[in-house]
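Lab notebook, page 48
Experiment: co-folding of the full assembly
Goal: obtain a model of how the components sit together before planning crosslinking
Operator: M.T.
Materials (sequences as entered):
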Amino acid sequence: MKQAVITGVAGFLPDYVLTNQELETMVDTNDQWIRERTGIVERRLLKEKGKGTSDLAVPAVLELLKKTGTAPEDVDLVVCCTVTADFRFPDTGTLICHKAGLTNAYGYDLSAACSGFVYGLHAAAQYIKAGTHKKVIVVGADKMSSIMDYTNRNTCILFGDGAGVVMLEPSDDETLGLRETVLYGDGSGGAELYQLGGGSVHGTTQETLDKNMHVIEQNGRVVFKRAVKGMSSAIKKVLEKSNLAGEDIKWVVPHQANIRIIESVAGQLDFPMEKVMVTIEKYGNTTAATIPLCLRDYESQLKKGDQLILTAFGGGYTWGAIRLVWGYNS
Ligand code: ACO
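Observation: model returned without errors.
Model output:
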């Protein structure tokens, strides 16, 4: 059977930098608290009017095509992982295909919040392994600023906008590519982390606007604990399924929500932080984009054959982990 291997990564961050200092002028917070409690120093925002998540994803996709030497017409599919679609419909995946000139590709959206990229990567790998698709782009992209309440210090300090993308292709090399995967969901978590307005239950009305229902709300402490537990147990399960120990893993690529969550997960598994990819200080939590942006930022340090574990936890709740063997030297 063919293996599904990542053959390139790329990303895009908008220019505007929202610093902790600027947040101090917006809500009752301070730089020291944000750094100590979250590890975040700044995040990027897409400020231009009329631009959405596809406008974050398209430059990343174009860069990916260039880096991998792929002709736009050779791409088969775009799996767009996002909770901030441009519109309810048309879906963002289809818009990305159109805007990036992927004339023979189709696309669709996958909504699993901060776990979107691991869900999407797993889904994309099935098309490659089945032999039905040869070039699949997995996009993790979110314009979190579009659903943020910049008067709520419980949420607005955490999130940023960005896009990360990977190319997935078949390989005959049995030793490379995606290996064991565990994915989980628990809908009872919907009570702790949500954006209620604008869906089919609470379609947009004057009442939903007056009640501020179109922004993220969360019970931060509860989510924090569940995130540590979820990612740690998912990594343990993947190690167990693959018959590997922590020391066999070269890199852990965790979803970037809070440096204290990342450090707790690493601590529980005895992973030294040097093995853990961290970008949170620069970008904050970009939801579906955090993992592919980590891969992009660390790409030059990755070597063919390196063992990686990707792990995420997010709204839903959704969570999971994937072991993969890196496929190229850059
Ligand atoms: N600035 C300054 N002070 C603050 C802020 C702030 N932005 N927010 C809370 N505080 C204060 C509180 O009022 C409280 O003060 P008190 O002790 O006088 O009552 C104190 O700081 C501690 O508050 P906590 O809510 O306990 O702070 P905590 O350390 O839990 O940090 C945070 C809050 C950052 C939200 C954390 O719980 C967290 O990161 N949770 C995970 C949430 C998350 O990541 N959600 C994203 C989606 S899911 C995911 O990506 C995994």
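Interpretation: The chain has two domains: 3-171, 177-325.
Next step: discuss with group before ordering constructs.
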